[in-house]
Amino acid sequence: MRLKLVFLITLPLICAQTQLLDYGERAGDQRLEFSAGQHATTMDVPVVYMEVPYSDIYISPNGIVGFGERLPDGVTPLQRLNRSAIAPFYAPASDGTVYYRSTSSDQRLLRRLTDYIHKTFADSMDFQTLQATIVTWDGIQNKENDGRATFQLALASDGMISYALIQFLALPWSASAGTYAQSGFAMPDGRYQSNTNSGGPDVKELVGLSNNPEGTSFIFRISGSVIEDPRENPDDYEYTNYDQTDYDGDDKKPPAQCPVDPYNDRCPEGCNILTDERMCSRCVCAEPQPDNAEGMTDDATHEKLPEPPHLARHNLIENRGPTNAVHTQEKTENSGDTRNEEEERRQEKERRLQQETQRERERLRQKIDERRREYDRHQIQRQQEERHKNQEEKMLQGSMHEGGQEQCKCLC
Fold first, then answer.
1. DSSP states of 47-95 as a string?
2. In this predicted model, what pLDDT tens digit does every residue of 143-184 receive, in sequence order?
3. What is the C-alpha to C-alpha distance for residues 120 and 114, in angstroms, rounded to an integer?
4. Are 300 and 283 spatial neighbours (Cβ–Cβ below 8 Å)?
5. Nearest-angstrom CA–CA distance, 31 and 99
6. pTM of the predicted model as reported, rounded to 2 decimal places
7. Which residues form the NIDO domain (predicted)?
8. 351-360 confidence digits (pLDDT tens)
9. Both ends of the chain: CA-CA distance in Å?
């Protein structure tokens, strides 16, 4: 029996505002229109993932990147993927755009990633990013069209050591087509590592969280025998033998710690049954169901669905009227608009900086060209003056020679 380990991060996370790396066609990205297929690309400097160098990556619109070989179609649980892959936000997608680029010449980006890694990993001071690959999933819709998610994966490599930087700008939904989104890493031997909240209703809370004090991202060293977190500490992880769990009895029997389903397995029409990676199932409805819903037990009719995590923290649903609910939604939308406006201002500022840098380079190039032309003019002028001087000297010597001959004739 092969041992499978999952690492669940339990340290408190840092809340901050996300700023994605520049992306889009203006940043030099290639745009991939939405399709169910995968896009393959080759990198000049290989990414080392779990001690194996890879030059080919496969980009899926479902929020996952594979190394060395194509990923299975659709969405597979990370514990059964058996591929080298990084999944920032892995779930069935129905629409959106994917941008990507690989660069070894964008020195500003390479330095930025290098500095970020140096600040996060104390033992990385010798690392210098030689190649960066940026993949951005922009405006990704789930099957239910609950909103557009935007997130990013950056791979930094020097050919021997590699890092993964994962950032989330907007995650308005947690599940798609009855499956919660997964975030983590998969290995060909069956091992996998899950990020915080992966495979559950709180996965969308990854927005604004970080596993390091330097930003709003999750950063990992991925080139060793294990995925390294900057918070690395044996006490920070829970280890679960999933093979043992699978063989302890009925594979379909949910674990004892699953939350109670208020509908008692009688999911009303129009609702969805969601299953997380613990194999826990729960009926979730987009709209509140009437208390006298057919098929519900007396206990279930008086039991409310669990509150969404971001509302439960602030008690915004319980005992509140429709006005407050609308106000809460407006505040959430305004907060999202503010983040988008700040991101647009930041991008505009960096775009102006890039333009100014380009103009400065152009001015410098023009100065160099002008100096070269001036030098050439001086060279031509000096050569002309030297030729003219040589001609005058020859003429003078010729005159002196003829004058000497005349004087000699007279004396004779």
1. EEETTEEEEEEEEETTTEEEESSPPPSS---GGGT-S-EEEEEES---E
2. 999 999 999 999 999 999 999 999 999 999 999 999 999 999
3. 10
4. no
5. 5
6. 0.57
7. 84-225
8. 887 777 667 5
9. 126
